[in-house]
Specification:
Elements: H1 15-53, H2 57-66, H3 68-82, H4 90-95, H5 97-101, H6 105-111, H7 118-127, H8 132-142, H9 147-175, H10 178-189, H11 194-232, H12 234-257
């Protein structure tokens, strides 16, 4: 890990400060993430709408929610490189799909899907490549002071999602008040029209995920980095490197300026 290239100031932070820093980091790296994230969400939304048109409405919208760990793996891949100044391109992201999608994704989707610490745990699975008893021991060590905050981050993320979805629906009702009545009537009297409303719901939820999910992943990622800084003394290591570099530089300059014998 090239700590000298990291774009944030390494120091021990509280968990709340770390989550705030994650939001700031995501704002900085949003231009890097935008196109690959848009491509992935567009593909998923297209699949969901196609499935709903075939009559599998509930399966489609549950599928969009269930595969959140896939979205998070892509976002984490971009963040984990961007924080060290490596701004990957869209082509690079999708040509290395196996590298960021394979590690831990099955565990995230099926075993720990309902874990409230998912954004924190994903970093251990994907970036450290641990599994089995090694992963369990590693998570126990990292969770000793950050578990409750990673759970709070998930709860806050869910509340923001709910608020965002409701806000978008209220905007639709405000623009076209008759839609709320049409929605109730279509569900009760005309099941065939449910497809249209499920498509609207899918688009609203996809937009919600597109805006909010990166910030949730970034918060969990910074909690993970902050915990590693606390345990492994990254900030101290980086300071020693800087001191060694300052000491080494004058000697190098003296050697260059010394006359040839």
């Amino acid at each position: 890990m090239q700590l000298d290239k990291i774009i944030i100031a390494l120091r021990k932070r509280t968990s709340w400060e770390a989550m705030d820093l994650g939001v700031i980091l995501m704002r900085k790296l949003w231009p890097v993430l935008f196109f690959p994230w848009l491509i992935l969400m567009s593909i998923v939304l297209l699949f969901v709408i196609t499935t709903e048109l075939q009559g599998h409405m509930y399966f489609a919208i549950i599928f969009m929610w269930w595969i959140k760990p896939v979205y998070e793996s892509l976002i984490l891949h971009v963040l984990s490189r961007g924080i060290f100044g490596e701004y990957v391109t869209t082509a690079d992201i999708y040509t290395s799909l196996g590298a960021w999608l394979k590690p831990g994704v099955l565990n995230s989707i099926f075993i720990s899907r309902f874990s409230l610490s998912r954004s924190f745990n994903l970093s251990v699975q994907q970036l450290e490549g641990l599994s089995g008893s090694e992963r369990k021991s590693r998570l126990q060590a990292l969770h000793r002071s950050s578990n409750s905050h990673s759970m709070v981050a998930t709860i806050i993320g869910l509340l923001f999602e709910l608020l965002f979805v409701l806000t978008l629906y209220i905007v639709i009702v405000y623009i076209a008040p008759e839609t709320s009545t049409d929605l109730v009537n279509s569900i009760i009297e005309s099941p065939d029209e449910q497809v249209f409303w499920f498509i609207i719901a899918s688009v609203i939820y996809a937009l919600t995920l597109f805006v909010l999910e990166p910030f949730y992943v970034a918060a969990g990622f910074m909690l993970y980095l902050n915990r590693r800084t606390q345990l492994e003394g990254w900030d101290i290591e980086l300071e020693f490197r800087k001191i060694a570099q300052r000491i080494h530089s004058p000697h190098q300059q003296m050697l260059k300026e010394a006359p040839d014998v």
